Amino acid sequence: MSSERPFEIKRLDHLVLRVQDLQRAVAFYRDVLGCTVARERPTLGMVHLHAGSSMIDLVSVEGALGSRGGPAAGAQGRNLEHLCLRIEPFDEAALREHLTMHGVAVDGQVSSNLGAEGDGLSLYLRDPDGNGVELKGPASSCGCG
Known about the structure:
This protein is mainly beta and 145 residues long. The protein is built from two helices and eight strands, in the order βαββββαβββ. It has helices at residues 22-32, 92-101, and strands spanning 14-19, 36-41, 46-51, 54-60, 82-86, 106-115, 118-126, 132-139. The strands form two sheets. Strands 1-4-3-2 form a four-stranded mixed beta sheet, covered by helices on one side. It has a four-stranded mixed beta sheet with strand order 5-8-7-6, with helices on one face. β7 and β8 form a beta hairpin.
């Protein structure tokens, strides 16, 4: 019996988030983070968003798909720890100005963190449902982290 997998992972294809207010969540991911709507599926309570070469799917906790997950996430429970979006350029001042303009608070200071491409600068924030979002710049050549 071979222990080799018949496949290899290439990249994150999509992530599905359960949200309390679908239109509010779409507005955040579209207007603040720059995702674009790929498809809306009202019968499922779902909107598919392009996020670079990946997708973020948003499902209403009251919709056909989202209701299967039980109560909405809140202060005592989350849908996930965070999702990481690789961005470029990583200009801290411009990022903070943009997020402030949209009323989005940054969690803590910019720090160097390990990602798929290596160590690079990132900052953290929360979407309207409290899900963590990491905005991550390119890997740095400093070897820091």
